[in-house]
Amino acid sequence: MDPDAVARAFVEHYYCTFDTNRAALGGLYQDNSMLSFEGAKTQGTAAISEKLTGLPFQQCQHNISTIDCQPSGLAGGVLVFVSGSLQLSGEQHALKFSQMFHLIPTAQGSFYVLNDIFRLNYA
Amino acid sequence: MDPDAVARAFVEHYYCTFDTNRAALGGLYQDNSMLSFEGAKTQGTAAISEKLTGLPFQQCQHNISTIDCQPSGLAGGVLVFVSGSLQLSGEQHALKFSQMFHLIPTAQGSFYVLNDIFRLNYA
Questions:
Q1: ipTM
Q2: CA distance linking residue A72 with residue A77, whole number of Å
Q3: Which residues form the NTF2 domain (chains A, B) (predicted)?
Q4: Would you list which residues of chain A are within 8 Å, Cβ to Cβ, of chain B?
């Protein structure tokens, strides 16, 4: 497994899904998954899916600036660190953000998100 | 173990050491540790210590804005996600940064840094 290839493919899939079909993001998490979104923690597929679909904006577009990744030490696990900007529909300025994911291999040969931490970078 | 307490104590110790005695940071890493600094990867105590002490600035001051943490799934491991700003001596403007650490318990009851990813957030 090439962690860089896993990270790039995941990042493309995640933000494309976020921007076009946010309700489908729930499928990337499992019941032991945790999301920290701007300091608010939620755990488990249902709660995370509810948090993401309930965010107070509809149309958005993520633009990715950097992707870093490292093996996490957990068998086959990959840490992915992303920076980029988030353009909300109707807003003049894009918001800068940083986000990290801890990806864990599944029995089906794919990955799920065990850890997800998101922060806006206020200028 | 309270991951929030571990994260806060680590962050305070790490950036205080960085700002006052950078050469001592090497003691926080082990030979399987990885550092990605602005996209450049190094591995192992010696290489990471050399990278950090060789950064092209001397006096600096980190100011921390946010600390997020989650259990990493690796026995006792903690993921720490930090945002803040870095003031370099003689520079007018502070640089915004984001950084993540994966902390692993040691046999001595402390933690070492297995994963470290650092990025400046360009405005």
A1: 0.95
A2: 5
A3: 6-120
A4: 32, 34, 36, 39, 41, 65-66, 68, 70-74, 77, 79, 81, 83, 96, 98, 100, 102, 104, 114-115, 117, 119, 121-123
Residue A104: both structure tokens together: 């864990």
Q: CA Rg, chain B, in Å?
A: 14
Tokens for A48? Answer: 């995370």
Q: Where on the phi/psi map is residue B3: left (φ > 0), alpha (ψ -120 to 50), or beta?
A: alpha
Q: Which architecture, in CATH terms, is A3-120? A: Roll (3.10)
Q: How far is CA A99 from CA A60, B21, B71, in A?
A: 16, 29, 16
Rg over alpha carbons for chain A, rounded to the nearest Å, is 14
What A92-96 contacts at long range (C-beta under 8 Å, 24+ apart), as own/partner pairs, is A94/A63, A95/A120, A96/A120, A96/A121, A96/A123, A96/B121, A96/B123
Rounded to an integer, what distance in angstroms lies between the CA atom of residue B122 and that of residue B94? 11
The whole-angstrom distance between A107's CA and the closest CA on chain B is 17
Residue A11's alpha-carbon distances to A6, A28, B97, B104, in angstroms, are 9, 12, 20, 26
Which residue of B71, B83, B115 is in closest CB contact with A79?
A: B115
Q: Which residues of B touch A (CB under 8 A)?
A: 32, 34, 36, 39, 41, 65-66, 68, 70-74, 77, 79, 81, 83, 96, 98, 100, 102, 104, 114-115, 117, 119, 121-123
